[in-house]
Amino acid sequence: MSTPVTMTEQGAEAAIFAAARALHLPTVRTEAARLADEAARARLTHRGYLAEVLACEVDERESRRRERRVQEARFPRMKRLEEFDLRAAPSVDPATFAALSSLAWLKEGHPVVLLGDSGTGKSHLLIALGVAACEAGHRVRYVTCAGLVNELAEAADERVLSRVLARYGRVELLCVDELGYVGLDPRGAELLFQVLTEREERSSVATASNSPFSEWGRTFADPRLAAAVVDRLTFHAHIVETGTESYRLRSTRATKTRTSAKVSGHVSEEQQP
Residue 273's pLDDT band (boundaries 50, 70, 90)? Predict the structure, then answer.
């Protein structure tokens, strides 16, 4: 065992910087000096300081992984579960919302179906569940129904469909938005069905649609295929109805009412002698 070499503080910092760079520990490289000063003030042992600096590296790596998973999911915008206003969505049962937020359904590979009119919070809830899954360590992919079908059709034309299906099969949560907004031709419907079959009873699919199940036949030209898709998406599913009245419309009406009330009150005051 070699005898430890006495180092100056400046030399020790240079050695830590070089070692951290060689070992690809960027957080140790940038935070070691600050943590050493804090450890000295707290009178930590060498082991205590080492634990602190390594924990800092681990935390920063996990933070970067969460950010990377969110980016790879390709959400159109960021939404979080804590931002979802249950008072503005009275059709959503708080107990059901809590069950969804726990992500237990994701661990079991169960689907989620969000049904409701435009502006009732379907996409917000869909994206927020996807973001929560990313931050919990799961691989997630968000896509609109039309975008997914177009991607699959292009892959089929280029003879790489099996590769794309396998890629969608590997993600732990597939979020499909806007199902029912655009009708699908028989080929597109069959391609979507292949994705669902690839994931059946293995990995979760969360779907948002503005149409009740009884109207899905308008999206899928083949009634038997529509029935098969409904069967795939509803087996062991959490089905949430977000309602029929747009939150944005209610908010606009409320704003206009408040504005009108203020104007009326102001006019009444001016009319007083």
Answer: very low
> Strand pairing partners for 143?
176
Average pLDDT over residues 85-114: 93
Q: Write b or e for each residue in 147-176: b if 16 or more Cβ atoms lie within 10 A of its Cβ, otherwise e.
A: ebbebbeebbeeeebeebbeebbebbbbbb
CA distance 151 to 273: 70
Beta carbons of 13 and 33 less than 8 angstroms apart: yes
Provide the token pair at 42. Answer: 């707290």
Whether 208 and 131 map to the same domain: the answer is: yes
CATH number at residue 128: 3.40.50.300
3-state secondary structure of 153: helix
Cβ pair 176, 145 in contact under 8 A: yes
Question: Tens digits of per-residue pLDDT, 16-68?
Answer: 888 888 878 888 888 888 888 888 898 888 888 888 888 888 878 888 888 99
The sign of the torsion formed by the CA atoms of 207, 212, 213, 217 equals negative
For 171, the 3-state DSSP assignment is coil
Do both 204 and 105 map to the same domain?
A: yes
Q: pLDDT (tens digit, 9 = 90+) per residue, 204-213?
A: 999 999 988 8
In the chain, what's the furthest Cα-to-Cα distance? 100
- Contact criterion met (CB below 8 Å) for 204 and 106: yes
User: What residues are paired with 207 via a beta bridge?
Assistant: 113, 176
d(CA 101, CA 159): 39
